[in-house]
Design a protein that fits this description.
The protein has 247 residues and is an alpha/beta fold. It has a single domain (12-244), classed as Uracil-DNA glycosylase-like domain (Uracil-DNA Glycosylase, subunit E, 3-Layer(aba) Sandwich). It is 27% helix and 14% strand. It has helices at 65-73, 84-88, 91-101, 140-145, 158-166, 181-194, 232-244, and strands at 12-13, 27-31, 104-108, 110-113, 136-137, 152-155, 205-209, 212-218. A 5-stranded mixed β-sheet has the order 3-2-6-8-7. Strands 1-4-5 form a 3-stranded antiparallel β-sheet, with no helix packed on it. Helix 5 (158-166) runs antiparallel to helix 6 (181-194). The protein is globular, with a radius of gyration of 18 Å.
């Protein structure tokens, strides 16, 4: 039994997967789970820092995704960080508006999750215990069905793609063996690792769901600590190519 002084990982619930996906959505950006301070219940982690974070997907002030999206379109969506204008602007509204205008939306693969003991405050995916019996994955067959115009899914990490194909697609799906999603992921990831040069902008794989042919891509991680040697300009060009070009 744990002593009163030892921490016990709490069950966290995703705060943003509940937002309805606009039917016009063409591109779905898929990650793993938000950092602990964003997850519910907020009382256990204090919640987003009002002068630093936005209360939405990729809202951490140390995450680069919204910077990449902004620069990829050439739009200045948000005021300069730290400015009086930034403090007063409705950041979450601007994020929703940007996504809708560009027919993009966001989802994460995890719905409820726990961090590993001793790492309750960590935002690293390595410290999420996906094998915990209380872990649940988002029902992605239902997500894909709700977006009839979807043509691309862009993962923000290989781990997100792994959990999507090997865990999340199994939720709510018929177990008739017609699709071996694990085999699809392994083959696509192996091919990706063998490519060089412009491999980041090449399609990861393609699959048909409910009559829709969807192309899957893996983008550079927008985490400040996981860009794998790419600079901001290179990441922006990759995001522009796989999200905004040739749709």
């Amino acid at each position: 039994m744990d002593s009163p002084s030892e921490s016990v990982p709490s069950l966290e619930t995703h705060p943003y997967n509940c937002h309805a996906i606009p039917q016009a959505t063409r591109v779905l950006i898929v990650g793993t789970a938000p950092p602990p301070r964003f997850s519910l219940p907020r009382a256990q982690h204090a919640g987003p820092k009002k002068d630093f974070d936005a209360d939405f997907f990729y809202g951490s002030g140390s995450n680069y995704l919204w910077l990449y999206l902004e620069k990829a379109t050439g739009e200045q969506v948000f005021a300069n960080p730290g400015s009086p204008e930034a403090a007063a602007e409705p950041t979450e509204y601007l994020m929703h508006d940007f996504l809708r205008r560009h027919r993009i939306w966001m989802r994460d693969v995890l719905q409820t999750y726990k961090r590993k003991k001793g790492h309750e405050a960590s935002s690293s995916d390595e410290h999420i215990d996906i094998n915990n019996r209380e872990t649940t994955f988002l029902n992605f067959p239902a997500v894909l069905e709700a977006a009839p115009n979807l043509s691309r899914v862009v993962f923000t990490s290989v781990r997100a793609a792994d959990w999507f194909f090997n865990r999340a697609l199994a939720v709510g799906a018929a177990s008739d063996g017609s699709q071996n999603y694990r085999q699809m992921f392994v083959a696509a990831n192996s091919a990706r690792s063998e490519r060089s040069g412009r491999r980041q902008v090449e399609q990861f794989c393609e699959a048909e769901f409910n009559g829709m042919v969807i192309g899957f891509y893996v983008a550079p991680s927008p985490s400040g600590s996981a860009r794998h040697g790419l600079n901001t300009g290179q990441c922006v060009e990759i995001y522009r190519s796989i999200i905004f070009d040739n749709r």
